[in-house]
C-alpha cells in the first residue's frame, strides 16, 4: 500500500489512469463520466497558505441521498457536558469497563468531555471508543469537526473516501471534517481515544527559536493514495451534526472517489517519529515543547486545542525536579495513556484511562512520585516504555453525565499527606 508524504502538501492521485483531469478542476465532461466535486475544509476566501480544499472525482455525487433522520442507535456520543454546575475538581477515570460489547466504531463511541457547542466552530470534545465488530454496510463522518483518532489497543483499518489508512497503537490518524470513512478491525477488537476538534484545523506548530527542525517533521505524515469501491447495495450513512447522530440510507457505497487532488485529506503519523526537544542543563521545560499538532484560537498564542505527546526520552537536567512540577494553568488538560506508566503518577493512571485538570486547578505529581524524584540521583536516565498524550484547550472541559458516574472517587487523595515545609527558627 503506497502513501503520499508531507503535511499539508498539495498532492494528486488516481486509482484509474486518466481519471484525474489535467489543467481543469471541473471539466465539462470528466473522464469516464465521473463527477467532479470540491471538498472545502476552509472558507473559499481564506489566504492561499491557509486554504484547504481537494477536488474529488467520483462515481456518484454526494448530493445523491435521501433525507437524514435522527439516528436510533448510539446515545452516548454528543456535544454537551453535564447540565450540573461544573465543579473545579480534578478527575480521573480507569479504562471504562462497562462499554457494551458487540459494537462497531460508531456505536462504540462515548463522549467523556466536551467544551463548546460545535455550532460555535470552536472547542474540542474527548471521546472514547470500544469496537469489536467491523463497520458493515455503513459509513460515518462528522460535520462538526475533524476526528483525531488515537488507538490504544488493537489496530484500525480506516477505509476513507480518499483511500486506505491502517493505524495501530503508537500512531494517530486524522480524518478531516466531512470526510467519510468505514472502520475495519484487523485484530478483531480495538479501544482508544478520539479528540474531535470543532475549531481551526490542526496544523504543525511554529518552531520559533527551535529553528527549522524538530518536533513532528512534515515528511513523516502520510496520506492515502486513491482507492475506491464500486459497490451497489444498501449502505447506511451516519453523520454527526450539531452534536447528534443522523442517518440515511444510500443505494451504493459513497467511498467511490476514483481520483483526487488537493491538500485536504486524511493522514496518519507514527508517534515514534516525534523528535522530542528537552533541556540539557537545568529546569523542566514547559510541556508545549511536546506539541505535535495545534489548532489556534482567535487569541494569538492561546490554542483552541493542542495535541501533545510524552514519548520515551532522555532526562539529563541537573539540580532539577524532573517530572512535571506542581502547576496551575489557564489551559485545561485532558490526558490519556497509551501504554506504560506516566512519570508524574505512581499508580491509578492506567493505559486506556483518562484524567482532567481544568483551568487553574492545582495539580502535579502524587506523593510517591514527588518523593522519588526529590531524592533521585540526577544521572542521565532514559524514560522508556511509556507513551502518554494530552489534549489541551483554552476552554473548560465539562464531563458528561456518563463520565461523572464513572470517575475515580478518590483521585484527590493522590495529593494527600505532603509534608509541610520546615522553615529555620
Tell me what the structure shows.
- The mean pLDDT is about 95.
- By secondary structure, this protein is mostly beta strands.
- Helices cover about 5% and strands about 35% of the residues.
- It folds into 2 domains: about 65-255 and about 265-270, Jelly Rolls (Sandwich), CATH 2.60.120.10; about 275-410, Jelly Rolls (Sandwich).
- The chain has 2 helices and 28 strands.
- The N and C termini lie far apart (about 70 Å).
- β21 and β22 form a beta hairpin.
- The chain has a 9-stranded antiparallel β-sheet.
- The protein has helices at about 365-375, 400-405, and strands at about 5, 10-15, 35-40, 55-60, 70, 90-95, 110-115, 125-130, 140, 145-155, 155-160, 165, 170-175, 180-185, 190-195, 220-225, 230-240, 245-250, 255-260, 265-270, 290-295, 305-310, 315, 330-340, 355, 380-385, 385-395, 400.
Helix fraction by DSSP (H/I, runs of at least 4): under 10%
Class per helix and strand makeup: mainly beta
Strand content: 35-45%
CATH class of the largest domain: Mainly Beta
* Strand arrangement across the biggest beta sheet: 1-16-20-13-10-15-8-7-28
- The number of helical elements comes to 2
Quote the CATH topology of the largest domain.
Answer: Jelly Rolls
The first-to-last residue Cα distance is 71 Å
Number of strands: 28
Oligomer state of the chains in this structure: single chain
Largest sheet: 9 strands, antiparallel
**Please, what is the average pLDDT?**
94
Compressed to H and E, one letter per element, the order equals EEEEEEEEEEEEEEEEEEEEEEEEEHEEEH
Q: If classified by CATH, what would the architecture of the largest domain be?
A: Sandwich
**Poorly predicted ranges (pLDDT <50, ≥5 residues)?**
none
Radius of gyration of CA atoms, rounded to a whole number = 23 Å
**CATH homologous superfamily title of the largest domain:** Jelly Rolls
Shape: globular
Tally of domains: 2
Amino acid at each position: 500500500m503506497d502513501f503520499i508524504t508531507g503535511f499539508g502538501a498539495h498532492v494528486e492521485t488516481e486509482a484509474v489512469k486518466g481519471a484525474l483531469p489535467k489543467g481543469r478542476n471541473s471539466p465539462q465532461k470528466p473522464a469516464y463520466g465521473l463527477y467532479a466535486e470540491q471538498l472545502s475544509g476552509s472558507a473559499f476566501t481564506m489566504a492561499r497558505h491557509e486554504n484547504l480544499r481537494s477536488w474529488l472525482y467520483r462515481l456518484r455525487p454526494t448530493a445523491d441521498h435521501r433525507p437524514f433522520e435522527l439516528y436510533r442507535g448510539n446515545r452516548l456520543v454528543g456535544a454537551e457536558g453535564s447540565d450540573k454546575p461544573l465543579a473545579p475538581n480534578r478527575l480521573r477515570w480507569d479504562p471504562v469497563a462497562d462499554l457494551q460489547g458487540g459494537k462497531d466504531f460508531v456505536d462504540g463511541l462515548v463522549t467523556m468531555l466536551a467544551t463548546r457547542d460545535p455550532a460555535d466552530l470552536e472547542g474540542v470534545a474527548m471521546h472514547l471508543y470500544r469496537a469489536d465488530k467491523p463497520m458493515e454496510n455503513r459509513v460515518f463522518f462528522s460535520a462538526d469537526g475533524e476526528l483525531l483518532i488515537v488507538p490504544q489497543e488493537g489496530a484500525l483499518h480506516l477505509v476513507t473516501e480518499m483511500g486506505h489508512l491502517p493505524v495501530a497503537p503508537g500512531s494517530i490518524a486524522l480524518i478531516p471534517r466531512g470526510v467519510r470513512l468505514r472502520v475495519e478491525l484487523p485484530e478483531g477488537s480495538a479501544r482508544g481515544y478520539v479528540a474531535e476538534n470543532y475549531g481551526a484545523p490542526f496544523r504543525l506548530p511554529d518552531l520559533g527559536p527551535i529553528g527549522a527542525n524538530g518536533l513532528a517533521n512534515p515528511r513523516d505524515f502520510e496520506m492515502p493514495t486513491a482507492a475506491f469501491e464500486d459497490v451497489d447495495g444498501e449502505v447506511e450513512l451516519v453523520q454527526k451534526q450539531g452534536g447528534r447522530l443522523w442517518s440515511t440510507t444510500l443505494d451504493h457505497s459513497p467511498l467511490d472517489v476514483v481520483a483526487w487532488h488537493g491538500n485536504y485529506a486524511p493522514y496518519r503519523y507514527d508517534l515514534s517519529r516525534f523528535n522530542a526537544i528537552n533541556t540539557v542543563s537545568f529546569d523542566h521545560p514547559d510541556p508545549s515543547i511536546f506539541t505535535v499538532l495545534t489548532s489556534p484560537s482567535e487569541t494569538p498564542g492561546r490554542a483552541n486545542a493542542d495535541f501533545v505527546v510524552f514519548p520515551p526520552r532522555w532526562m539529563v537536567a541537573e539540580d532539577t525536579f524532573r517530572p512535571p512540577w506542581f502547576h496551575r494553568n489557564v489551559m485545561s488538560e485532558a490526558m490519556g495513556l497509551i501504554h506504560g506508566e506516566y512519570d508524574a503518577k505512581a499508580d491509578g493512571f492506567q493505559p486506556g484511562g483518562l484524567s482532567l485538570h481544568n483551568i487553574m486547578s492545582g495539580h502535579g505529581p502524587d506523593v510517591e512520585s514527588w518523593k522519588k524524584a526529590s531524592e533521585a540521583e540526577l544521572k542521565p536516565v532514559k524514560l522508556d516504555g511509556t507513551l502518554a498524550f494530552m489534549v489541551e484547550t483554552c476552554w473548560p472541559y465539562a464531563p458528561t453525565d456518563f463520565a461523572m458516574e464513572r470517575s475515580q472517587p478518590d483521585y484527590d487523595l493522590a495529593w494527600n499527606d505532603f509534608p509541610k515545609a520546615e522553615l529555620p527558627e
